[in-house]
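INTERNAL AUDIT FORM
Audit reference: QA-55
Scope: verify that the stored structure record matches its stored sequence.
Auditor: D.O.
Record contents follow.
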Amino acid sequence: MVKNGVSLKKGAKVFLDSMIFIYKFESEIKYGAILEKLFAKIESGYFTGLTSTLTIAECLTKPKKEGSLALIAKYIALFRNFPNLEIYPLTFAIAERTAGIRAEWNLKTPDAIQLATATEAKANIFLTHDLALSKYKHSYELSNLDHFKI
């Protein structure tokens, strides 16, 4: 698997930003094929998927606002049962790291929480569609969905 020219090996930890799930489950056609492959690799255990509890809140907001019970159920089932997907809660260590990221890089709190969670979870790559996050210096590779290849 390649992202921005770097090969990911079996066992890599891939942090998934909220939009990755939204694109996957709310029919974003442009990224359908790559996300199908990625989620299949996570499901099989080739990669470990990582995300935060913030992702759950972000993914459920629109379906709850619209009363889309089917989509709510789909997300809840995914987050509770998807194999090899680890969901990290907001801990003291993540909150402290979030504050440091916000102070240094002037990012919004949700973005900083996601980046801090990826760091604490020891992610190898952070997959997003948010170009603003590319300025943050981190211990893992950051890949925009448009440049991610499998």
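Auditor finding: record pair retrieved intact. The longest strand covers residues 48-52.
Action required: none
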